[in-house]
Specification:
401 residues; mainly alpha; 3 domains; 16 helices; 2 strands; 1% strand; disordered C terminus
């Protein structure tokens, strides 16, 4: 009964946050309102949400990533695939390495593996947050498609990096060559599983609809089950369930482009997924707010472990990490755009130099959202032997081969 009460309270908080964000005289983003409401619940109500990382990840990550892959325009994604892959893969790995070493240098008490995990969890950008910014600030359409494609794919790459970083922290060792081979396996396996399950399911549903008739409820339920089926099968086969969920959404988008489903089914399906997206994103932010009191309570002790006494050093660390993220993103975008222009000129095109406004807009558009919060909330509290996470730096050994 308590679990049902907690779920109902969270859902009511999501509804109230939507109303409050529209009523407030200042344009305060809805996620901030949801965090405040969650904090009030954590302080006032006698409710405590004990998060199981595996269950939390399963409930929220697959449907959100599936939805992003399902709704992104495939044609635009393919047209700008080079720029998207550079941002979604190259920038993520640069962020994990660069910010990881920066955080370890700034906070020597934090082990390098944990610093990499922190960098990995803040590396993905959020398509919902990017869309919210685009609604208020005019962004060129092509740039918007690149940012959406980046935010879709870097969720997968960032969370896979997080998985390796946590594994290194838990085991105390890391092999670059083994990680590279493992990444290829989990990535290709996840793509194959997500594509295979979705394609076979969609074709079977089309055959049934053609010979028996289409039922809107069944079609919608199938779309709801696909991300979980892809995720669970991929994880069972030790592949990436995250990438499988993304591949499943992209595959369903391509299959549905043929227009076999009835218009009424597509409209209802979109409405159902809009609701799921609103609820899932809202609950994540409300849960973050609910967890904040217990997270901030030991803030003074956390700061002392870094060698400082004043709690405001936490704010210094947050600002420094954000500045580092923006700086790395700016450098990557500038170098990538410069190389693209250089190649164009080499082939005889009269391309102009990098546009400062375009580079600045792309750098500042790398905002984080629900997937980052979900990754943070799934970080383990203790190791397998019961000792607190993070581990001591002396336990970590790095191997290149």
């Amino acid at each position: 009964m308590e679990a049902i009460t907690i779920v109902l309270v969270l859902l009511v908080a999501v509804v109230v946050s939507g109303l409050a964000s529209r009523i407030l005289p200042l344009p305060i983003p809805r996620p901030l309102v949801q965090i405040v409401l969650g904090g009030m619940i954590g302080l006032v109500a006698n409710l405590r949400v004990d998060l199981d990382p595996e269950i939390f990840f399963l409930l929220f990550i697959p449907p959100l990533l599936f939805l992003d892959g399902w709704r992104i325009p495939n044609e635009e994604l393919l047209k700008d695939r080079t720029a998207v892959l550079e941002m979604a893969l190259g920038l993520v790995f640069l962020t994990v390495v660069g910010v990881g070493f920066f955080v370890h240098w700034m906070i020597p008490a934090m082990p390098l593996t944990v610093a990499f995990a922190l960098a990995a969890v803040v590396s993905p950008t959020d398509p919902i947050a990017v869309s919210a910014i685009a609604a208020r600030v005019p962004i060129p359409k092509r740039l918007m498609h690149i940012l959406e494609g980046e935010s879709l794919l870097n969720d997968a790459s960032g969370l896979v990096c997080l998985r390796f970083a946590i594994a290194a922290a838990l085991t105390g060792s890391f092999s670059l060559s083994e990680a590279a081979l493992s990444f290829v396996w989990v990535a290709l396996g996840g793509i194959a599983i997500g594509f295979g399950i979705t394609w076979l399911t969609a074709k079977a549903a089309e055959w049934i609809a053609r010979h028996i008739g289409e039922e809107s409820g069944s079609q919608i339920l199938i779309s709801l089950l696909l991300p979980f089926a892809s995720y669970l099968l991929a994880e069972w086969l030790h592949c990436s369930g995250i990438i499988a969920a993304v591949a499943s959404g992209l595959t369903l988008s391509s299959v549905e482009a043929s227009g076999q489903a009835m218009a009424a089914t597509r409209m209802r399906q979109n409405s159902v997924w809009d609701t799921i997206q609103f609820v899932a994103n809202g609950i994540i932010f409300v849960l973050l707010g609910e967890q904040l009191p217990s997270i901030l309570r030991p803030a003074a002790e956390t700061v002392r472990s870094t060698g400082h006494q004043e709690p405001w050093w936490l704010l210094v660390y947050v600002l420094a990490i954000n500045i580092g993220l923006v700086a790395l993103r700016f450098v990557w975008v500038w170098v990538s755009l410069s190389l693209t222009i250089f190649k164009a000129r080499f082939h005889g095109s009269k391309a102009r130099g990098p546009n400062w406004r375009l580079v600045a807009a792309t750098s500042l558009a790398g905002v984080r959202g629900a997937v980052t919060l979900a990754g943070i909330l799934t970080l383990p509290v203790v190791l397998d032997d019961g000792s607190p996470f993070p581990v001591e730096t002396s336990l970590f050994s790095w191997r290149w081969a």
